[in-house]
């Protein structure tokens, strides 16, 4: 070969370069297989890299701490685990404060570990792992897991106390008494739990990213709640019969100070509210209307902002920029990042390796940034970075986070929160109109990182074949095109093996013969007849210009304006941008604008949840009607929904005034939990009329409210206090989705519980079914056995 060619080792085509902390490096991305355990896989990779490090030459090191998904998982699971433990401590404290009995408290709290174990086993059977979403579902359910057990234990203790006051000959057998006490509230507990499970049904109909995120949370919540119900009606009564009869809480029948204080505080409020049903009803309606107005005034977003502890910074310069120049510009961005005290490490990839699955041109760079936050907030840091980047000419910089960045890619195909897509037939007109849209969006408050998709005219050498000339010489376009490609770009014709290395053998013309149009025109082509003709004899070779890329969607040409959001809600920014574009940009015939991104998914998810939520409300009404055999009583119990809405909306405003898919699911959960209180109250009033023969409606409502006050307060406080650590962890890694849900449930539960015990009795006395109630769920399978023949 050396007689006809220059054979030498040459550089392979360079498609990218990389740096670590501003120094040249090789950056390796490792993707896990679906279903693999990220934490276990990361540990194994660390072990392998440590072994490789021992074999490397001096001065060459491996740093495995650039971007590790396991770091975010470790921190997130740690935060949620701590929230669960702190919530359990608060639940123990509130239950013991009400019961003042270690035995009763232990029986009640046993429902938590048994329910969580059942949930973990069910998740394992369903192929769902322990992650931040499933742990979040357990954390949100934590307080509710003891609710059924609390109701059973409290009612059993109350009945055992009453029996202990009777003469010995008039007392019932313990098993019979515990059985009667459990059956007394069993139906209401079962129906209340079914209602809570029912309200979670819409979550399982979510699709896309929101469905993949929320469904494991809903599964963990529902399974653990159903397990707690099964435990409350099986394990809890057995333990009550074994441990409570000889306990101090039964032998010395006096209530705890907290219970006495709660009733003392409640009685005057109850007596004042009972005759004022008209004022209470009007006030509830006004409060509901004001709440709905406040809800309409909230901002809208898809998901809460993640706090991943890292950034993904995309840097783009003009198409056609050389790799060296692109590397230099991206290095200036990296220098700005490394100057920040919060930045621990940076890893930059300019262009991409030949076989990298994530294609990227050499004029684009991606920088992974590891953060360790200090005195400055994340918002302050990002604002400072954007200000610094604006001083680097010739680049467009978009700041995101690894997970959020990929969510944006899945939702809109871009690397930003908002994608404004302009469609039309002419590329030049698309660029002109795209520039106008970019100018309009830049002026919208809250819109940051506004960029028009990079499209520009690049110089090309075009070869236009003359088919008639090709036919005269007996040539085919395919063969000539292959020759031109080999001459000026190179073709791999073989491989040389040297030990373990495999080296491509590439044939091409020397650089000196590839530097002008004239050289290309004089390229000699051999014909089948043996003649030799220049390329110019069979094709027109000339310089030209053309677009670096042509974007299409649904067969239409399009150009995209991207933007992120900072300091405002996503929907508000989109609405303002839409308004400015419609007012100030005139689109010719054949051109139109579409808006995509996170807000589009938020709107779709909200529609799904609202439509299915309406169906769930109808389902709740049917269950309540089945339970009470009364339309009036069913509607009165559902009064808890607007009462819960009051506090829930306040929770949204307390957490920043942004309504996300997570907040909506918080409202759904809240409605189910709040309905339980009304079910427990009305069912007990029915029980007093049917089983204990209390005919006076006022006395029946008064006694029913007072006897159900403590268990309702206990369940509400247990559920609420279990959510406090999760609500306080807002913004921490792993709690971004669960914290807004917890805040909505917590605030709504407090308002609905207080108002339920005041508004519902007053309205029930005026509008409720005060005749002898039909047999309902509070006496399943027939009348409950009588406890004793005594006035109580």
Description of the molecule:
This protein is of the alpha+beta class. 55% of the residues lie in helices and 14% in strands. The protein contains 26 helices and 19 strands. A six-stranded antiparallel beta sheet has the order 2-1-5-6-4-7. Strands 8, 9, 16, 17 and 18 form a five-stranded antiparallel beta sheet that branches. Strand 11 (491-498) and strand 12 form a beta hairpin. The N and C termini lie far apart (112 Å).
Task: Write a compact overview of the structure shown.
Helix content is 55%, strand content 14%. A hairpin with a 2-residue loop joins β16 (552-553) and β17 (556-565).
Radius of gyration: 35 Å
State the separation between the terminal residues, measured CA to CA: 112 Å
If strands are numbered along the chain, what order do they take across the biggest sheet? 2-1-5-6-4-7
Low-pLDDT residue spans: 772-792
Could you give the count of β-strands?
19
Q: Which structural class matches the secondary elements?
A: alpha+beta
Percent helix among the residues? 55-70%
Mean pLDDT: 84
- Could you say which overall geometry the principal axes of the C-alpha atoms support? elongated
What percent strand? 5-15%
């Amino acid at each position: 070969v050396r007689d006809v060619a220059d054979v030498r080792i040459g550089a392979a085509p360079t498609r990218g370069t990389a740096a670590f902390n501003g120094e040249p490096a090789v950056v390796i991305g490792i993707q896990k297989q679906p279903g693999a355990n990220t934490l276990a896989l990361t540990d194994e990779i660390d072990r392998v890299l440590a072994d490789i490090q021992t074999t490397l030459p001096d001065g060459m090191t491996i740093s495995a701490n650039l971007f590790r998904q396991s770091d975010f998982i470790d921190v997130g699971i740690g935060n949620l685990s701590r929230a669960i433990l702190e919530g359990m401590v608060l639940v123990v404290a509130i239950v013991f404060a009400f019961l003042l009995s270690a035995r009763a408290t232990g029986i009640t709290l046993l429902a938590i570990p048994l329910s969580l174990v059942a949930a973990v086993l069910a998740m394992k059977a369903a192929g769902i792992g322990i992650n931040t979403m499933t742990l979040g579902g357990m954390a949100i359910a934590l307080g509710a897991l003891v609710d059924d057990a609390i109701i059973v234990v409290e009612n059993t203790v109350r009945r055992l106390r009453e029996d202990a006051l009777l003469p010995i000959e008039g007392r019932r057998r313990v098993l019979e008494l515990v059985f009667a006490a459990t059956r007394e509230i069993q139906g209401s507990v079962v129906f209340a739990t079914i209602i809570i499970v029912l309200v979670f049904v819409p979550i399982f109909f979510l699709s896309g990213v929101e469905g993949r995120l929320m469904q494991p949370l809903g599964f963990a919540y529902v399974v653990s709640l159903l397990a707690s119900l099964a435990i409350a009606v099986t394990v809890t009564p057995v333990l009550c019969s074994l441990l409570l009869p000889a306990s101090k809480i039964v032998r010395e029948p006096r209530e705890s100070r907290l219970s006495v204080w709660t009733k003392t505080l409640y009685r005057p409020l109850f007596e004042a509210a009972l005759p004022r049903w008209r004022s209470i009803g009007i006030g509830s309606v006004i409060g509901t209307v004001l709440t709905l107005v406040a809800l309409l005034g909230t901002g809208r977003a898809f998901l809460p902002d993640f706090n991943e502890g890292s950034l993904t910074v995309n840097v783009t310069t003009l198409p056609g920029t050389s790799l060296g120049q692109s590397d230099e510009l991206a290095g200036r961005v990296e220098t700005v990042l490394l100057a920040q005290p919060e930045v621990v490490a940076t890893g930059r990839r300019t262009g991409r390796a030949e076989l990298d699955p994530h294609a990227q041109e050499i004029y684009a760079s991606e920088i992974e940034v590891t953060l360790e936050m200090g005195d400055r907030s994340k918002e302050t840091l990002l604002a400072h970075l954007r200000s610094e980047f604006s001083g680097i000419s010739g680049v467009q910089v978009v700041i995101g986070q690894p997970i959020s960045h990929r969510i944006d890619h899945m939702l809109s195909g871009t690397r930003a929160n908002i994608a404004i897509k302009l469609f039309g037939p002419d590329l030049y007109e698309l660029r002109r109109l795209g520039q106008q849209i970019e100018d309009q969006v830049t002026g919208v408050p809250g819109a940051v990182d506004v960029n028009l998709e990079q499209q520009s005219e690049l110089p090309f050498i075009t070869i236009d074949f003359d088919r008639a000339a090709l036919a005269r010489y007996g040539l085919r376009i395919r063969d000539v095109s292959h020759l031109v490609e080999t001459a000026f770009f190179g073709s791999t014709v073989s491989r040389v093996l040297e030990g373990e290395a495999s080296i491509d053998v590439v044939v091409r013309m020397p650089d000196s013969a590839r530097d002008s149009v004239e050289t290309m025109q004089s390229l000699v082509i051999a014909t089948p007849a043996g003649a030799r003709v220049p390329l110019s004899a069979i094709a027109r070779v000339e310089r030209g210009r053309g677009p670096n890329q042509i974007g299409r969607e649904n067969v239409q040409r399009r150009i995209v304006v991207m933007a992120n959001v900072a300091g405002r809600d996503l929907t508000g920014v989109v609405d303002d941008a839409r308004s400015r574009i419609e007012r100030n940009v005139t689109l010719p015939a054949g051109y139109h604008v579409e808006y995509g991104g996170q807000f589009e998914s938020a709107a779709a998810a909200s529609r799904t949840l609202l439509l299915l939520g309406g169906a769930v409300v109808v389902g709740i009404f049917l269950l309540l009607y089945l339970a009470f055999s009364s339309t009036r009583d069913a509607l009165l119990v559902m009064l808890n929904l607007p009462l819960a809405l009051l506090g829930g909306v306040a929770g949204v405003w307390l957490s920043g005034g942004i309504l996300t898919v997570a907040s909506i699911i918080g409202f759904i959960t809240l409605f189910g939990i709040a309905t339980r209180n009304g079910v427990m109250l009305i069912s007990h009033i029915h029980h007093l009329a049917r089983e204990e023969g209390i005919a006076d409606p006022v006395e029946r409502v008064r006694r029913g409210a007072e006897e159900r006050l403590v268990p309702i307060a206990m369940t509400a406080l247990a559920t609420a206090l279990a959510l406090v650590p999760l609500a306080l962890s807002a913004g921490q890694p792993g709690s971004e989705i669960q914290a807004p849900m917890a805040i909505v449930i917590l605030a709504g539960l407090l308002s609905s519980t207080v108002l339920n015990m005041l508004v519902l009795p007053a309205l029930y006395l005026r509008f409720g079914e005060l005749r002898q109630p039909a047999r309902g769920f509070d006496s399943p399978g027939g009348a409950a056995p009588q406890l004793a023949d005594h006035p109580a």
